[in-house]
Amino acid sequence: MAHKITDTCAACGTCKDECPQGAISEGSPYKIDPELCIDCGACVAACPTGAIVAE
To answer: pLDDT tens across 4-43, in order?
Structure first.
């Protein structure tokens, strides 16, 4: 199951830098490509606002 970035995203880029698959793209909010996401949770742990949840 891929993760999803919610509207509480501050667009800081921390999650993008931590994603080992390059599945996160910039935007407001940032977006996670479910085809690339391997559900490792690195982005969840890195997010300072808690904006990333399991989909």
So the answer is: 999 999 999 999 999 999 999 998 899 999 999 999 999 9
- Give pLDDT, residue 30: 95
User: Structural domains in the chain?
Assistant: 3-54 (3.30.70.20)
User: Which three-class secondary structure state does DSSP give residue 32?
Assistant: strand
- 20/31 Cα distance (integer angstroms): 15
- The alpha carbon of 48 is separated from its chain's Cα centroid by a whole number of angstroms, namely 11
The β-bridge partners of 4 are: 53
Q: Which residues contact 7 (CB under 8 A, 6 or more apart)?
A: 29, 51
Q: Output DSSP code: residue 38.
A: -
